[in-house]
Amino acid sequence: MSELKQDQYWMQQAIELAKRGLYSTKPNPNVGCVIVKDDRLIGEGFHPKAGQPHAEVFALREAGEHAQGATAYVTLEPCAHYGRTPPCAEALVKAQVKKVVVACPDPNPLVAGKGVQILKNAGIEVEVGICEDLASKLNQGFLKAMSTGMPYVRLKVASSLDGRTAMASGESKWITGSAARQDVQHWRAISGAVITGIETVIADDCQLNVRSLHNIDIETVAQPKRVVLDRQGRLPLNAKILENPEAVMVMGPYRQELADLGVIQLEIQPLKMLLQTLSKQHQIYDVLVEAGATLSTAFLQEGLVDELISYIAPTLLGKSARAMFNAEFEYMAEQLRFTLLDVTQIDQDIRLRLIPTQEKV
Which residues have a catalytic role annotated? Predict the structure, then answer.
């Protein structure tokens, strides 16, 4: 096996380890590390939760004195700063590893090349970029937020074959089947926040939390914040979403009764500024929008959606049912186009994952 193939193999093992923290590390990134010596795995680890040791620390503990002269494979550039834990770059230096292979550079200003430089200054060989595309998918929100100050935004919609999301009355339970609804739990669980509008809360009395995940203890999941856009202050105090008020954020006029419950209140601001506030002030780097047509359309038209997740059910709801998108276009040149990432059949429903494209018609 060539050296490149070996590096890719071991980095893929590190990536699989990193996935074990997928639902629990927020706001920290998912990171995995394996330590290899003489083509043999001698240590492995992943970052399980903010405040706990990083992946490199667990791997070095397992490797012990055998780490000297070994190669460490890390999915994200080792940290170079003191936070809740000491710098991992210095731990690798202290362990006297011979080489460090990194999948993704860390754009966090506290790291941003400093981790690699610490290693190089100690005479350790460093290679960056092995399996970078695969590893970056683990931390799309973190990487985007550290680079731009904006979170990664996923917009989820569920519709009929004729593009309808609810009956004219607002009734929407259920268009898609239980398997598709279960699939949505994953997207909530990887998100730091779920954004919805007050109309959806009033119509569905939804909770928008994570209730079940396949083979995952729900107690280990870092639940997303629920962000309700309520410009007129209409959120009922008996709404189910307020059963866990400390997990709720409301953008709207200040209400003392919400403050008394412990709800975080946000001033009314444009959507782009709201996303910046969530990222910079609340360390929310992945956002899932689950809302009605008006709010969903606003996110799309303002160019704030990074990924569209569309569930399509094999049913027709008729022309009087509510459309999934309510903008009015007169010309083909105004259409919003997408690039298809993948198509997945989930029981009787279809899930499309798409990203907006700048392609001109």
Answer: 56
